[in-house]
Write a structure and sequence with these properties.
The complex is a heterodimer. Chain A is mainly alpha-helical. Chain A is built from 14 helices and no strands. Chain B contains twelve helices and no strands. Chain B starts with a helix and ends in a 6-residue tail after the last helix. Classes of the chains: A mainly alpha, B mainly alpha. Chains A and B meet through helix 1, helix 4, helix 5, helix 6 and helix 7 of A and helix 1, helix 3, helix 4, helix 5 and helix 6 of B.
Chain lengths: ~270, ~290
């Protein structure tokens, strides 16, 4: 009973600010700024959603371009980071080679480094290759954030898979690569789901690189667009809330759907998500 | 074989992380006052001297320390309780876990924008709720006072991070064998006692990892500060990473900005060494 009460309190603490933002996004401006505070708006408006989703020029166009950019950048980052991560993790989990431990540590440390310390050189590198304000440039820098993470989480998962399965297959003449794809990967499915979820969230959330390395609708991502709205439309919180809620849908849906992999991912990850 | 398997990861990470970090170290020894500067004299350690003799640096370090201690304490205490709730045999446990996961999945910038709205001095719902309930009699500018604003940013950050900490501790809780609880119950141990002598010792590895990782995160915190307060008011929410960013990009002093960034890197490396030692002591078979 007490536990259920506690759970209820937590649920309210989580849902209250979200619920108010959702209400604000459909409240009339008069209701939003009314004093005394109105718990429930007297008039509803869906104009802000209409503006964001269908409006020509200005806010709507920027927002839709940003959603498309974010989707492309995040999906590309996840695909690359998972493939590269699977190959590298297999090496760490199964092969013995010189400098194995130092190499693993370098990857782990690189994940800890602050983005602010990489901004100036990365800006120069991207500009040399003509990758400033492009989605490709963002995919490259995001991969450097996400790959150490997938590498770590997948390595930890692969070592938990019994080696005998693989050895049996290799006695039957399967190559190492064959064993990786036919034995290890299917057995590691929960770990891979966890890695996909965590890396999508990381990529979708990335802000600092996108802020500095993009300047137009050609590559600007959703976090940058939202932060611009929040800076520019300080009086119309409803518009910021509407954009923010739409921007939150992809990661929140993925996290809720893959929720049961969160704990196993944390257990094998030991790194922030 | 291992070489070829690791090559793609190495190219991505070394090219985009290690090479730039060395270049930042390099820039920190030169005087660079514009992105296009051609005249960049070598100044040795002067930028580091300039950085650490600036009172702004120590103020930012102080705020970072405050941020670390307060947010980690809140997150650990509430996170432990929440981990227990997540582990409990609740009805509709799936639904409860799904709700708790939401703040963690919410993009940092969206979280920041949402709390900026909640704390707003004119229309924010926090003011609305507090005055309606009669707790305060006037609207407070939550982000208008430097120290209050820092605490509000910490609160907004904690709201998003507590679920992460809780799920991480839950992962540790699930490794505690059921027999331990059974044995404690046979001994008629009280719940606080079970917590102190069974749960807490088993959670020590997870808790220490959380402590280290959250400290590293506090040194890196940037996004939420940028979106909520831009470091203001009166630099009250400028943590060290934000301070380094301002030095490099607003003040266009890339040499000092790089020196500052590299000092953050050194601090993080020191903390990470501790982290690696903790990982090796826990049962991570990889290291």
């Amino acid at each position: 009973m007490l536990l259920h009460l506690g759970a209820l309190v937590v649920a309210v603490a989580v849902l209250a600010p979200l619920g108010w933002s959702a209400l604000a996004s459909i409240s009339s401006q008069a209701d939003l700024v009314a004093r005394p505070f109105r718990w429930w708006p007297t008039a509803f408006t869906f104009d802000r959603y209409a503006e964001i989703l269908t409006g020509v020029g200005g806010v709507g166009e920027t927002f839709r371009a940003a959603m498309l950019n974010s989707t492309i950048v995040a999906v590309a980052t996840v695909v690359i980071a998972i493939i590269v991560g699977v190959l590298g993790a297999y090496a760490f989990a199964r092969l013995r080679f010189r400098f194995r431990r130092p190499t693993l540590m370098v990857f782990l440390v690189s994940y800890m480094l602050p983005q602010v310390a990489l901004l100036i050189p990365l800006y120069l590198i991207l500009s040399t290759f003509g990758l400033l304000d492009t989605r490709l440039g963002l995919v490259v820098v995001n991969c450097s954030l996400v790959i150490p993470f997938t590498l770590w989480i997948l390595s930890n998962y692969f070592v938990t898979i019994p080696q005998e399965l693989e050895e049996a297959a290799r006695v039957d003449g399967t190559t190492r690569m064959g064993a990786l794809f036919r034995i290890v990967l299917p057995a590691a499915r929960p770990g891979i789901f966890a890695a996909i979820m965590f890396s999508f969230l990381l990529a979708w959330d990335e802000f600092m690189y996108a802020l500095i390395f993009t300047s137009s609708d050609a590559a600007k991502t959703v976090p940058v667009a939202i932060s611009e709205f929040a800076g520019r439309y300080t009086t119309d919180f409803g518009l910021v809330a509407a954009g923010g809620l739409i921007a939150a849908i992809p990661p929140v849906l993925i996290a809720v759907i893959f929720q049961r992999y969160v704990v196993s991912g944390m257990a094998s990850g030991a790194v922030k998500g | 074989m291992a070489f070829w398997l690791l090559l793609p990861a190495a190219v991505a990470v070394f090219g985009v992380v290690l090479y730039p970090i060395l270049r930042t170290l390099f820039i920190s020894f030169f005087h660079v006052d514009s992105a296009l500067a051609t005249d960049t004299p070598f100044v040795g350690l002067e930028n580091y001297g300039t950085a650490v003799t600036d009172p702004g640096f120590w103020a930012a370090m102080g705020r970072t320390l405050y941020f670390t201690v307060v947010s980690t304490a809140i997150e650990l205490v509430i996170g432990l309780g929440l981990a227990g709730l997540l582990n409990a045999k609740l009805r509709a446990r799936w639904l409860f876990r799904a709700i708790v996961v939401i703040p963690w999945a919410l993009p940092t910038i969206v979280n920041a924008a949402m709390w900026k709205g909640v704390f707003n001095a004119q229309y924010g719902s926090l003011n609305g709720v507090l005055t309606t309930l009669g707790i305060t009699d006037h609207y407070v500018a939550w982000l208008g006072d430097p120290f209050l604003a820092l605490n509000m940013v910490i609160l907004a950050d904690a709201w998003k991070t507590i679920p992460l900490v809780a799920f991480f501790l839950l992962a540790g809780l699930t490794t505690i064998p059921g027999e331990l609880y059974e044995a404690a119950k046979v001994d008629r141990a009280s719940w606080p006692r079970i917590f102190r002598s069974v749960v807490l010792p088993m959670l020590v590895p997870s808790i220490s990892i959380v402590l280290v990782l959250r400290t590293v995160e506090a040194f890196k915190v940037f996004d939420i500060v940028y979106a909520m307060t831009r470091g203001g008011p009166a630099n009250g929410t400028q943590t060290i990473a934000f301070y380094a960013y301002i030095k490099a990009f607003s003040d266009q002093d890339f040499g000092v900005g790089s020196a500052l960034s590299f000092l953050i890197v050194l601090a993080i490396l020191a903390i990470t060494t501790l982290y690696l030692r903790l990982l090796r002591r826990s049962e991570m078979s990889l290291l």
